[in-house]
Amino acid sequence: MTDLKPWITKADHLRRDGRDGYEALARDMVHHLGWTRALDVATALRSFVYGQPGGSELHKAVEPLYRRLGWEQSALLACWFRDARNRPGSQPKRRPGGWPTAATPPTQTTDR
Residue 6: CA atoms inside 13 Å, Cβ hemisphere, count? Predict the structure, then answer.
């Protein structure tokens, strides 16, 4: 079973500080747990988001994390794992500003 206490503590800090930290939390989980285990945790969190938690040991372990993160941060964290660009070995297909690599950003026009 995965010990989630470090992330429960971090979730407490995120809620208290009021910052959007789901991405940092997700990356930290991947770094320490590995992609597969972190993805399992995110999937279990997603089941709480949809109101359908299972009864497995993982779901029981994830419930305190869900309670600390709250619905919105849990949903964002679960979505972070669903984004293909975050998967190991994926090549980003967007520029830092969010524009696809094949598209050119719009030029600024000034009305005179």
Answer: 9
